[in-house]
Amino acid sequence: MDYQVSNKAKIWTTILMIVGIVFTGIGIIAASGSGHLGQKFLGNLLSNSFFFFSIAISAMFFLALQYATESGWYAYVKRVIEAVTGFLPLGIGLLIVTFLSLTFTNGAHIYMWMDPEVMNEGGSHYDALSAGKGAYLNKPFFWVRTLAYLAIYYIMWNGFMKRSIQQDNSPELAEEIHFKNYRKGATFLVFFAVFSSTSAWDWLMSIDIHWFSTLFGWYVFAGAWTSAMVVIIILLLYLKKLGYLPKVNESHIHDIGKWVFATSFLWAYLWFSQYMLIWYANIPEETTYYLMRIEHYKLLYFGMFIINFAFPMLILMSRDAKRHAGILTFVGLVILAGHWLDVWIMVMGGSMGPTASIGFLEIGMAVLFLGLFVRVILVKLSKSPLVSKNHPFLDESLHHEI
Amino acid sequence: MHKEATIREPLVIGHKTFHEVTEDVCKPIEGKAPKTWYVLFAIAAIIGLYGVGCILYLLGTGIGTWGLNKTINWAWDITNFVWWVGIGHAGTLISAVLLLFRQKWRMAINRSAEAMTIFAVFMAGMFPLIHMGRIWVAYWVMPLPNQFGSLWPNFNSPLLWDVFAISTYLSVSLVFWYIGLIPDFATIRDRAKKPVAKKIYSLLSFGWSGRAKQWSRFEMVSLVLAGLATPLVFSVHSIVSFDFATSVIPGWHTTIFPPYFVAGAVFSGFAMVQTLMLVMRKAYNLEAYIHTKHIEYMNIVIMATGSIVGVAYLTELFVSWYSGVEYEAYAFINRATGPYWWAYWSMMTCNVVSPQLMWFKKLRTSLTFTFLIAIVVNIGMWFERFVIIGTTLHRDYLPSSWSMFYPSHIDIGVFVGTIGLFFVFFLLFTRYFPVLALNEVKTILKSSGQSFKDGDAKTPAFSIEEQHLADVKMKPSNNSDSDGSDVELNNDNK
């Protein structure tokens, strides 16, 4: 049975988008007098486009990981993972729009290094430390890197999607395509291993221009991966509730539940490693990042950590919880909000500092993006058969039992 | 029922019955050891004893016998410690993490990898102990109530966290390993002819009878322990990395250290497993169980973790420049071009370049090449720790106290001695313990055994006669003597 986007889903995603637009409008009007409107708007645009893009690319990472490790259990739910990657083209588009806006506004006080007044000697805000990074942080090189990441992601994504359909239609090529996916999956992982770190430096770490942390890229990646697993499980549970994918059993759900649990731990481990080492060494250049966030976002920042760590740890620890649709959806939605907040604090804490707060504009843009994101992945899901055919491990997946 | 896709390569080559699996694993324990075993054992024991001698001399004289000086106050001691702890990571990763990921190929190697882990952690633990100089007060690292007033260890120190992390890791690994051994000890017990051996193995096997209920509990305990051991795999080496990263020394203080140390540990651990496995499969005729596919899988793990380590090296290098901190930048320039450049470039070649060769299927399925690379990786990982520790310390903030490190013969003797002792333990293990988790391998025989997979198995895994004889044998009063899946019978189905 192929999936059709239900009217209910269409109405709800439209409502989300309309509410988002209305709220954003109110937020823009409210902020128009403050003189920070451009920075506020572009900051939120950056944080949301990155957050939703990162979910799509992490879902693709997960898919590539399944290919490269020759996993079998996922074959029956492959299309669900693929649907989540379906936001990738739009996500790439939104990121490019964001970066173009930032480039033409000389960084809009978000990317200080885009501002010639900061980087050029004799400028009104010249900063030697920032200028020292000019060889890496400059507009042309930034665009070369950004376009390289996005182009390679897009080309490889296209390949994965094309081969997935091709495998459905030509049983005689199924094995050949499978081994091709195995090789391409490994290739993607190589690119992603480098790009996930460097793109996090370029897009996010460079906002706090003086600050640096070697772990930053892996930390951002872990958060995105967790969010991707959450979206995958929620989408799967939604389809299951509507009666699709009858052969998805408790074991499949349990397995993805374990991934949510494990990636949350990975994220918390990396959060702790970065935080604790900086706290312990107490070097001013490094502690400034956290001091600012603790001073101005204490509740949000530590609240975010508790949500993203304690929630999955305490609630998803038991085996039964990882098989329970209600619990998984609840925990999933909460930590998805938590990871959104994490990215938001990364961007806004670094750019606007004490003047940022969560209001109409922030909620409005997040809701707008969420509506768009859900709509796009549902449409993507309806474009191809819900279950892939001819996958060599499909039989393993159908008989999956743990 | 579980299915296994036809395109997956079989994990047990050829046609093996349950009985043959038992025979293959138990033979070396029951028979006489070959001459080579004695020769190897004697060599390892001599080297080990020399190490023990060096340690005794060191304890009697003081750690001044090491080549340490005021500037380089940590060198080979901690290098060796971290190296051995790192090696001790593979076993638990294989048994716990791969169990959670349902990687069935682990069954061929988990037993000896876990044994190796435990022995490696023994070796690692020795270095902090002897570094104390006064080893007889080693128990002071424990937070014990004492008569000295409020004398407590420094809970803020990562060195103390190490004590807890490593002792927890060792205990859990030991329990995990032992639980897995129980059914196999029972099999050996049931086959043992000599009364002393029978007595010992029956004590070791805790009265295992192989009933369904025991297996069910066995599997449950394995999963629980795997769940406990997985965070430990991360915590141990993370905390080891804290020893350095919590400081304010350029080259030590960097946030990527915890995950990168974990990856490096798995990397070196797998290299050591590879080294041992390649010899063992040959010496004990286990080629059907540990075959090219297993070696290839391990090589892929080595390649993946080696790449993670490589990305981390480059990240550190980049950020040392990006940070704009001149001390940080100098630490790395000094590593690459200073007096210890050869250590840095050995590390880079061995750890970053050599595992990349595993991208070629031809190379990663070549046993000779694998053996070579495994040794290269172990050398590289030793150099990595030396580069991190030695070259960072030798030029600190104060150029007037810059110096070089020259190992004394005691430094060398203690290090080489631990390698000897490690092999003494490992050789004893291969002699008296089932080196393969034979009862676990049997569980995958029908789904992953070559002949069963191809459908050309001439006889069932468990023939009718065997079944019948097992029933007959179990009927007599002492049914605790049989593990239910094996009988003392040479079947003629070979």
Automatic annotation (TrEMBL), chain A:
<feature type="transmembrane region" description="Helical">
    <location>
        <begin position="50"/>
        <end position="68"/>
    </location>
</feature>
<keyword id="KW-1133">Transmembrane helix</keyword>
<feature type="transmembrane region" description="Helical">
    <location>
        <begin position="186"/>
        <end position="204"/>
    </location>
</feature>
<feature type="transmembrane region" description="Helical">
    <location>
        <begin position="325"/>
        <end position="346"/>
    </location>
</feature>
<feature type="transmembrane region" description="Helical">
    <location>
        <begin position="80"/>
        <end position="104"/>
    </location>
</feature>
<feature type="transmembrane region" description="Helical">
    <location>
        <begin position="216"/>
        <end position="239"/>
    </location>
</feature>
<feature type="transmembrane region" description="Helical">
    <location>
        <begin position="259"/>
        <end position="279"/>
    </location>
</feature>
<keyword id="KW-0472">Membrane</keyword>
<feature type="transmembrane region" description="Helical">
    <location>
        <begin position="12"/>
        <end position="30"/>
    </location>
</feature>
<feature type="transmembrane region" description="Helical">
    <location>
        <begin position="299"/>
        <end position="318"/>
    </location>
</feature>
<keyword id="KW-0812">Transmembrane</keyword>
<feature type="transmembrane region" description="Helical">
    <location>
        <begin position="358"/>
        <end position="378"/>
    </location>
</feature>
<feature type="transmembrane region" description="Helical">
    <location>
        <begin position="142"/>
        <end position="160"/>
    </location>
</feature>
<protein>
    <submittedName>
        <fullName>Quinol:cytochrome C oxidoreductase</fullName>
    </submittedName>
</protein>
From TrEMBL, chain B:
<keyword id="KW-1133">Transmembrane helix</keyword>
<feature type="transmembrane region" description="Helical">
    <location>
        <begin position="220"/>
        <end position="240"/>
    </location>
</feature>
<feature type="transmembrane region" description="Helical">
    <location>
        <begin position="113"/>
        <end position="139"/>
    </location>
</feature>
<comment type="similarity">
    <text>Belongs to the NrfD family.</text>
</comment>
<feature type="transmembrane region" description="Helical">
    <location>
        <begin position="81"/>
        <end position="101"/>
    </location>
</feature>
<protein>
    <submittedName>
        <fullName>Hydrogenase</fullName>
    </submittedName>
</protein>
<feature type="compositionally biased region" description="Polar residues">
    <location>
        <begin position="476"/>
        <end position="494"/>
    </location>
</feature>
<feature type="transmembrane region" description="Helical">
    <location>
        <begin position="300"/>
        <end position="322"/>
    </location>
</feature>
<keyword id="KW-1003">Cell membrane</keyword>
<feature type="transmembrane region" description="Helical">
    <location>
        <begin position="342"/>
        <end position="360"/>
    </location>
</feature>
<dbReference type="Pfam" id="PF03916">
    <property type="entry name" value="NrfD"/>
</dbReference>
<feature type="transmembrane region" description="Helical">
    <location>
        <begin position="367"/>
        <end position="388"/>
    </location>
</feature>
<feature type="transmembrane region" description="Helical">
    <location>
        <begin position="408"/>
        <end position="429"/>
    </location>
</feature>
<dbReference type="GO" id="GO:0005886">
    <property type="term" value="C:plasma membrane"/>
</dbReference>
<dbReference type="InterPro" id="IPR005614">
    <property type="entry name" value="NrfD-like"/>
</dbReference>
<feature type="transmembrane region" description="Helical">
    <location>
        <begin position="260"/>
        <end position="279"/>
    </location>
</feature>
<keyword id="KW-0472">Membrane</keyword>
<feature type="region of interest" description="Disordered">
    <location>
        <begin position="469"/>
        <end position="494"/>
    </location>
</feature>
<feature type="transmembrane region" description="Helical">
    <location>
        <begin position="159"/>
        <end position="181"/>
    </location>
</feature>
<feature type="transmembrane region" description="Helical">
    <location>
        <begin position="37"/>
        <end position="61"/>
    </location>
</feature>
<keyword id="KW-0812">Transmembrane</keyword>
